[in-house]
């Protein structure tokens, strides 16, 4: 089977600073990959590179039928922007020649009430805003979604809602998911594969195989609780 | 009459442009960028060619330079424009004949030929069409540049086009407002409209309306009381802004 995403010796440098060093991995259609690592390990840069936003050495190939959706790290939306969610979604629909009717159905999919469309984006709550970003990514029916810290700065209840939504989308739409997170607790629920990144690849594989004491030591350079399968524990561990 | 028609067409374009300038946090850029036209104006007056041509060349070079410097450095747009502004003001003051400096800075009420009017209306139409056609791309790029790129927007090209349209809007207002006041026609109506609107269509419509009313009523007042047109228009728009501050916040 051809990989849905194939990454070969990918490196990214900003000036003389090497941020990602020779990363290679493959992802199959419908699989979910969590990219974990300490701050400054290159997680967001890797995600942006896969979106074509960053200059790089090496190569990566998406399947020709890949349609990418992107949920960026929390955007500090200017509260004074006179733009509501409808304006934002209509902008994407217009650029990509999508049907206006898709806007309403996408907003419903992420569980936002219809009235939210008329709310200025700066007036949305943290959870609503994150769902609005997911709705933006889902508009146009992508088959792969790249999430960058989807629950950063959300309270625990909103976090639960977002992850429930992501799981639902994976189940119902068979989405391929790439998720950057510092939150190791989501790994067992969300990821088929893990990429531990600290500029270069520290581990890659299914969570139960990839995450070991040695990997954590190498990844975070400090003692850390090791991942346990959900059948063993249900406690959350944060990196 | 032609002069008023010219001013109204410029006001409509400036009102719409101001909304995007405000959202892109480029309102002061309008004020200082207009000064970049000064060296071109000065040289045109010195060499006896149409001042508007000098302004166009000067602003065009300025817009491309700002875009290039932005690409090559991490400096924000306003910083780059600020440096360009100071240099342009100094060069402009050096090359503009002293008897023309006041007109260059504050505008004038020179007669307008039909040919000039048509030229200005065409340029206004181009600015308005650009903003209408590109409004969705502009909205996305100012919300988040990465999201815009992933959605298929060429943000770098869009920014260049925006700067050129912005410079064109300044050129439209330079004739009757001058380099010191033209920026205000971009800032003030948008600032007033922002006080009362929460959606993009209303914001755009409100700003265009305030701009058109300021110019038409300003012209009438200037004519009735023998005042200078440019300062009257801007003083009127600014008064509306100060009145709008009394609106209660929701």
From TrEMBL, chain A:
One of its GO terms (molecular function) is ATP hydrolysis activity. The keyword Transport applies. Keywords: ATP-binding, Nucleotide-binding, Transport. SUPFAM superfamilies: P-loop containing nucleoside triphosphate hydrolases. InterPro entries: AAA+_ATPase (IPR003593), ABC_transporter-like_ATP-bd (IPR003439), Metal_Ion_Import_ABC (IPR050153), P-loop_NTPase (IPR027417). Residues 5-224 form the ABC transporter domain. PROSITE patterns: ABC_TRANSPORTER_2 (PS50893). PANTHER family: METAL TRANSPORT SYSTEM ATP-BINDING PROTEIN TM_0124-RELATED (PTHR42734:SF17). Belongs to the ABC transporter superfamily. This is ABC transporter ATP-binding protein. It comes from Candidatus Uhrbacteria bacterium CG22_combo_CG10-13_8_21_14_all_47_17. The lineage of its organism: Bacteria, Candidatus Uhriibacteriota.
